[in-house]
Design goal:
Length: about 325
C-alpha cells in the first residue's frame, strides 16, 4: 500500500477555495499529478510514494493558498497558470535512485520580511527567475506588463535582505522631453526619483513601503543616474538598469564594464519603445547582438503572452506588434520595386 502524503490547511473555508467550484481546481491538480486527491475536514491527501509527485503536490497547494491569502480567491485560469509554469526549467536535484527531490519551491522568490512570495506567472517568467539564479548578468527584454522589471526588483530584494549582497543600485538612462534635468528643482535624488518611480512601486508591492524608505535612508537602496556611473566599480550589489533600450552603445558598454566582485546585473528593456534620437543606436539592441552566445550571460525574451498586468494590455501590445509587422512587410515590398 502506498504511503499517504497529507497537507493540513488552516480551515474548511480555505479548503473550499482551494478545491474550487464543484472541485474544478482539484480536478486540474489530479489530472496534472496523475493521482487522485482526497479531502477530509481541512486536509488534502494523495497516496503516492514518489517524492517528486509529493513535492509538486505541496508546491501547487502552497501556491494556491498563497493566492487565496492575497486576493481571497483562486480562479480556474490561475490554477492552470500555476500548473503550466511552476516547474518549467527547474531540474531535479542530484540524489539517489531511491529518493528524488524536486526543486519546485525554487520557482518562488521568497523575500525575507516580504508581504508575500513572488511567483512567475508564465513560462518565460519562470525561465527568467531561473536565469537570475544561474548567471550574474541577465538581460530581460519584453513589452510593458510582461513582469521583467517586477521580477528583477523582487530578486534584488531577496538578495539584499538575505545578505547575499550589500546593496541595490537602481539606474536608468534619462531621456528628456523638452525639459533639462539640470533645471528641475531639488537634489539629484529628487530630480531622478520620478524616472525611477516604477521601480519603487515594484518594491512597495513586495515589501512594506516603510521598509523601502528605511533601506533608502540607510543607503542600502541607492539611486544612481547612468551618467554618474563612469569610473565606479560596482561590487557586492544587485544592479538594475531599467529602460535599457534608451541607452546609447557607449552608455551600455560603460555600464557593463562597471561590474565588480559578487555583483548581479539585471538589465530590462523594451525594444519597441526606443525614445533615442533617430540617428542614435540603442545600446540594448547592440549588446543583445554581440553578447548573445556567451554562456555566462543570460538573455530572456518575453512577449505578449507574458503580459500579466491586464488582459486588455496584452491585447494592446499584440495590436501594436501586428501593426509593426504590417509596416515592416510593407516596407519590404516597396524596397523590391
Amino acid at each position: 500500500m502506498e504511503k499517504e502524503f497529507t497537507i493540513v490547511l488552516s480551515d474548511g473555508d480555505v479548503l473550499s477555495n482551494v478545491c474550487g467550484t464543484n472541485d474544478c481546481n482539484l480536478k486540474l491538480v489530479e489530472e496534472y499529478l496523475g493521482t487522485p486527491v482526497y479531502t477530509k475536514g481541512n486536509e488534502l491527501s494523495i497516496e503516492n510514494d514518489d517524492a517528486e509527485v509529493q513535492q509538486k503536490f505541496k508546491f501547487i497547494i502552497d501556491r494556491i493558498t498563497d493566492e487565496i491569502a492575497e486576493s481571497g480567491a483562486c480562479p480556474l485560469d490561475l490554477v492552470e497558470s500555476i500548473l503550466n509554469t511552476g516547474f518549467v526549467g527547474w531540474e531535479k536535484s542530484p540524489s539517489s535512485s531511491s529518493s528524488r527531490n524536486f526543486n519546485a519551491g525554487e520557482a518562488a522568490i521568497q523575500i525575507p520580511g516580504g508581504t508575500h512570495k513572488v511567483y512567475p506567472k508564465t513560462k518565460n517568467q519562470s525561465v527568467l527567475v531561473k536565469e537570475f539564479r544561474k548567471n550574474d548578468l541577465v538581460f530581460a527584454v519584453g513589452p510593458a506588463g510582461s513582469g521583467k522589471t517586477f521580477l528583477a526588483v523582487a530578486e534584488a530584494l531577496r538578495l539584499v535582505l538575505s545578505k547575499k549582497v550589500n546593496s541595490i543600485i537602481l539606474t536608468r538612462p534619462i531621456v528628456e522631453a523638452g525639459e533639462s534635468l539640470g533645471f528641475l528643482p531639488g537634489t539629484l535624488e529628487e530630480k531622478i526619483n520620478p524616472y525611477l518611480r516604477p521601480l519603487y512601486d515594484s518594491m512597495g508591492a513586495c515589501i512594506p513601503r516603510e521598509m523601502v524608505q528605511k533601506l533608502t535612508e540607510n543607503g542600502v537602496i541607492e539611486i544612481a543616474p547612468l551618467a554618474y556611473m563612469r569610473g565606479r566599480t560596482l561590487s557586492n550589489c544587485a544592479v538594475i538598469l531599467d529602460e535599457a533600450q534608451n541607452t546609447t552603445t557607449e552608455q551600455m558598454k560603460m555600464f557593463l564594464t562597471r561590474m565588480g566582485e559578487n555583483s548581479k546585473m539585471f538589465i530590462t528593456g523594451d525594444s519597441t519603445q526606443i525614445d533615442l534620437p533617430r540617428r542614435a543606436k540603442s545600446g540594448l539592441l547592440h549588446a543583445l547582438k554581440i553578447l548573445r552566445g556567451i554562456p555566462e550571460i543570460s538573455i530572456v525574451e518575453l512577449d505578449d503572452t507574458d503580459v500579466v498586468r491586464s488582459a486588455l494590455v496584452r491585447k494592446i501590445v499584440r495590436a501594436y506588434e501586428i501593426d509593426s509587422e504590417r509596416e515592416e512587410s510593407k516596407m519590404a515590398r516597396q524596397s523590391d520595386f
